[in-house]
Structure formats: C-alpha cells, structure tokens
Amino acid sequence: MENFDLHNHSTRSDGLLSPTQLIELAARAGVDAVALTDHDTTEGLVEAAEAARNIGVEWIAGVEISVTWGDTTLHIVGLGIDPSAKAMVDGLQSIRDGRWGRAERVAKILEGLGMPGTLQGALALAPNESMLSRTHFARHLVDTGAVKDTQKAFDKYLGKGKPAYVAHQWATLPEAIRWIRESGGVAVLAHPGRYDLKPWARGELLEEFRRLGGEAIEVVTGSHRPEQYAMWKRMAEEYGLLASRGADYHGPGESPYEPGKLPPLPKTLTPVWSKWRH
Ligand code: AMP
Ligand code: MN
Ligand code: MN
Ligand code: MN
User: Fold this and answer.
1) Are residues 200 and 59 in contact, defined by beta-carbon separation less than 8 angstroms?
2) Which of 12, 168, 208, 268 is 20 to 30 Å from 25 at the Cα level?
3) What is the pLDDT of residue 40?
C-alpha cells in the first residue's frame, strides 16, 4: 500500500508543530503524500505547500470542518480543496467567528470552578487567535497543574457532558459538504468511531452523508482504537464509501501515531486517494 497520511494538524489550529515542521516530519517517515487538515482554517496551506515543494514530498490541501448534526459534533475533512474558493473562505470564516464567544463562556465556567485566567492562559498557547480551541484550554490546565494531561482535561472539564462543555452551533452537514465540493474537494467523514451514536443513528449519518455527496470515511485513524478498524471497514463496504487513513496528529506526546506511521488500510477497501491516482 502507498503510504498516504491524510489528516494532520499544525499550529494554525490546535497542533503543536508549524506546517513546515509537520511536512518535514511526514517526509522523514517516508510518506508518499501528506495532507494538512487544520480545524476550520486553511491558513497553514501556503506554508505547507512551500515546505512540501522544498522537500520534494507530495502533499494535499485539506481542512477539517466542525459540524453540528443534531446534538452531535462531527468533523468533516475536505481533501484536495482549493482554499481560495469563495464558498470555503466564507463558510470557514462564519464558523470561526463563533469561537471567541464560546471560549469566553468556557473560561467563565472554569473560573466558577476555581480556575481564573484560563481565557488569557489558553490564548497565550494559541498562535492563531481566531482558532482558539478546547485543546488550548486543555494544555493550559495541564500547565497550571489542574490536570495531569490533556486527556484528563477533557474527561474532567471540557468533554461533552462535563461541567465546562459549552454546546455550540457549527456548520450544518449539508453546508460543510457543499463548501468542500464547491472548492473541488472530496468530503471525508473523520474518525466516525469517535461519535457517541446509537447503531441506527450511525446508519442514518452514513446514508445522509453519502446522499449529500460525501465520498469517504476514515477507517485507519489515530482517533480510532485499532480494535475499531474492523467495524469501520465493514461500514465503508456496506455503504459503498471510499476509505481514508490519517494520523490526526496534533504533536509530540499528544497523539498515538506520528504522520505516516499508522497501520495500512485493509487491502479490500478502495482508498480515497484512488480518486487522484488513475
Ligand atoms: P474544539 O474544536 O475547540 O471543540 O476542539 C476540538 C478538539 O479537541 C479536537 O479536535 C481534539 O483535538 C480535541 N478533543 C476533543 N475531544 C477530546 C477528548 N475527549 N480527548 C482529547 N482531545 C479531545
Ligand atoms: Mn484537534
Ligand atoms: Mn477531529
Ligand atoms: Mn483532526
């Protein structure tokens, strides 16, 4: 199998490495192609393109869009997008705009729980102020000793159903898929095993995703436990979807796999990169 890694973050969203450092790390791992897929922003793609050109590694322009589907937050990855497409630019701007007000509410709750100053603390860790995310709050809570690692910060405070979780309206599923398709990209449902959905809702999601023009799901991802791969392989087959593979790398010590180091996709699946390779 070719070593494609199609889901990774940089400091433009909640990753710890710059786009250049990310591309270099992936190239050292020997990837055939790497995608940068920051949350709700394409700001890192110019730097990633330049780094990839200098190193001579194939790369793919991507994004990971936050979506609200019922009361579930989904992530939809767009691959092979044109980041200058108006639908994408305007769409991403509209969802980034909500982040600041949400962060203020998270900080207020944390203050009420005896942790003052978390908005400034999280902001100090966010190189891109317009992409302030829960990950930055989590890192700040680690730095202040409130929790021992970022996972604990989500388990105790920031995760869904926890005291500092603030429900938020992101893009709708039709919007996210439309922005991706209008910018020439392929829509991929990110880490489907991570959503807390009943089996009937999972089926409904895959049906709707496909009906709206979604084409692939992540099967082998750093955000699935290896024992989840088999189930999502079956779902890809059952719903006639292409399969994607990506580390969902955020940085040293925060992600189970470095870019390009995941197990391969199951051989019977059609990889999403078959779209670009004929
Ligand atoms: P946000 O877009 O601000 O809601 O932040 C979402 C990001 O937080 C995700 O992309 C992950 O990087 C991280 N995240 C969300 N849930 C968890 C969790 N349960 N454990 C660890 N990281 C998480
Ligand atoms: Mn993230
Ligand atoms: Mn995600
Ligand atoms: Mn991600």
Assistant:
1) no
2) 268
3) 98
Which segments of the chain have a pLDDT < 70? Answer: 278
pLDDT at 86: 98
Assign 245 to helix, strand or coil: strand
Other Cβ atoms less than 10 A from the Cβ of 139: the count is: 23
Longest alpha-carbon distance in the chain: 58
How many angstroms does the Cα of residue 8 sit away from the middle of ligand 2?
9
Phi, psi of 140 (to 5 degrees): -65, -40
AA letter at 136: H
Q: What pLDDT score was predicted for residue 111?
A: 98
Task: Quote the ligand 2 centre to 210 CA distance (angstroms).
Answer: 24
Predicted local distance difference test score (pLDDT) of residue 278 = 58
Full strand arrangement of the beta sheet holding 58-69: 4-5, 33-36, 58-69, 72-79, 186-189, 216-221, 242-246
CA of 192 to the centre of ligand 3 (A): 9
- Tell me the ligand closest to 136's alpha carbon: 1
Provide the token pair at 190: 């990110």
58-85 pLDDT tens trace: 999 999 999 999 999 999 999 999 999 9
Beta bridge partners of 244: 218
**133 CA → ligand 4 middle, Å:** 12
Q: How confident is the model at residue 109, as a pLDDT?
A: 98
Q: Establish whether residue 261 lines the binding site of ligand 1, counting it when its CB lies within 6 angstroms of any ligand atom.
A: no
Considering only CA atoms, which residue is closest to atom 17 of ligand 1? 154
pLDDT tens-place string over residues 142-174: 999 999 999 999 999 999 999 999 999 999 999
Closest C-alpha to 113, from 155, 161, 146: 146
The ligand that comes nearest to the alpha carbon of residue 66 is 1
Which residues line ion ligand 4, judged by CB < 5 Å? 64, 248
